[in-house]
Amino acid sequence: MEVFDILALLGGLAVFLYGMNVLSASLTKTSSGKLEQSLQKLTSSRWRGILLGLVTTAVIQSSSAVTVMLVGLVNSGIMTLKQSIGVVLGSNIGTTVTAWVLSLTGIDSSNVFVNLLKPASFSPVIAIIGVGIIMMSKNSRRRDVGTVMVGFAVLMFGMEMMGDAMKPLAESESFANFLILFSNPIMGVLAGTIFTGIIQSSSASVGILQALSLTGTVTYSSAIPIIMGMNIGTCITALISSIGVNRNARRVAVSHIGFKIIGTIAFLILFYLLNSIIGFSFVYKMASPLSIAVFHTCFNVFTTLVLLPFLDKLEKLVTMVVRDKSGAKEKYVLLDRRLLLNPPFAVDHCKTVTNQMAEKVRESLYTVFGIMREYDSQKARLIEGIEDEIDSFEDKLGTYLVEISSKSLTLADSRKVSMLLQNIGDFERMADHSLNILKSIQEMNEKKIDFSEAAWKDIDVVEKALTEIIELAINSFINEDLNSAHLVEPLEEVIDTLVFEMKSRHTLRVREGQCNLELGFIFADLATNFERISDHCSNIAVCLIEVDKGSFDTHEYLKQIKSATDSFFSEKFEMYKKKYTLP
Fold first, then answer.
1. Which of 61, 301, 352, 509 has a CA between 20 and 30 Å from the CA of residue 8?
2. How many Cβ atoms from other residues are within 10 Å of residue 57's Cβ?
């Protein structure tokens, strides 16, 4: 090969890898972020887990990315080791889809319609359409689809460049002799492992091998061990990502490479044993891009079918390799950075974690309402502990969401990130108000003072209204229920009216001597915290409604619904006004 041929080869390789990166990133961006819910539903059986791993990897075009995500999921406590194993096996099959697409470069026919299937024929058309969509469409989803098309075209163009640059190798006797070295199974497996470990993508390395096969110099005896080595090399990424994670997460990475090694050993023994007995006639024939894709798939399907009956035993084996430390408890990470490999999934996971935060806030508020009349020190400690947890939630979620916002996101995911950033602040403030109410109760308990029965009756009515608005706001957020969200604002207006009235009544009781001035201050603090909790519930609901509309103008929304023309708001306001009336 001349210098210019080498430059063309390296340029083709660069274009090929860039195209694969663009394609994978674009497919990941356009894929649904609801994977977390799917994982919990579809990993109940091994077959379902395999299917999920296959489909997910086929969509995002990277078994390494899927396995790294699995490490993050197990490290976060979302999935168990047992659930992840089936997904790992499925991802091994799913990653072979790329090889089948790239095998189209090997088509050679005089038929016009058959030649239309060649990437050199249809890639320019896909590129033109993709660029047109990106330039002319205002819809972000369509532009993402256009980017997928351009990424695919670039990938295929890089493949063609590599194939053309390698053509001189077909006449090189020294290169042919060099490839003979890889007919040795150990050398072939080692070469495939090292090469794929460097570029960290079996899809890319198999594609490069397919491009090399177009020169007519790659025999099956060389290609077979190299492909198996490439399947082992793709595990390097997961092994690197498992540094610093908990034991079960490390076991996911170990199981990935363990399955590949066991499958390789089993396949090599079976293949060369049968070859020595039968004598396969194709071994020294030249491999094609299609045959490489076929073997790549057969190897991974073979490994899955062989290992499937022994998964429970393999799980125990992995557990023995990565041993439990005596007396050590498994630690889970709330928001694992590995999940950022799939931004839509990371956004969805943040929503799940924020749901947990919301449930904690609900627990804190209901607990503090329960001890207002009868103080309980044990429950008080629970409320204080929850407040610390909520602060941690806000800090970690806020940092994580800001990092996600710097990624390439769809418009819908970008809006969801903005909504979560606002809502975590509201939830944190609600927990603060819960703690403020607790301090008022503790002050009354320490000083042995108490409100009059009339004051308590007013508090009871407002507490019931608060309980309902908290239910509406938190449930609407968790379930993304717009019907419940629309009920929050009318009730919030009623609570504002109740709080104003209860303050006025208590001021009158203080003047009449039914309550002293000290109790008056405590009562005012309670009323203020009640009102603030209601305000934050309103913020949560309004944000949900506005995000659904694709807007963030909360002031305009509140102005519209409170206008005389909004019959729904007026009707619900009157309903809640009758339901919650001070005695």
1. 61
2. 27
Query: What CA–CA distances, in Å, run from 368 to 81, 387, 462?
Result: 38, 12, 14
- 348 and 308 part of one domain: no
d(CA 131, CA 458): 65
The predicted-structure confidence for 164-192, as pLDDT tens digits, reads as follows: 777 776 666 676 677 677 788 889 899 88
H/E stretch holding 544: helix 517-549
| Distance (Å, whole) CA 155 – CA 383 | 56
C-alpha dihedral, 239 to 241 to 246 to 248, nearest 10° = -50
Residue of higher predicted confidence among 533 and 43: 533
Q: 171: which 2 tokens?
A: 């006449």
Residue partners of 294: CB distance under 8 A and separation at least 6: none
What is the DSSP track for 306-371? HHGGGHHHHHHHHHHHSPPPTTPPP---SS-GGGGGSHHHHHHHHHHHHHHHHHHHHHHHHHHHHT
Provide the pLDDT for residue 99.
82
Task: Kindly indicate the confidence band of residue 531, based on its pLDDT and cuts at 50, 70 and 90.
Answer: very high
Amino acid at 47: W
Domain that holds residue 195: 3-321
- Asked if residue 333 is part of any domain, the answer here is no
Number of domains in the chain: 2
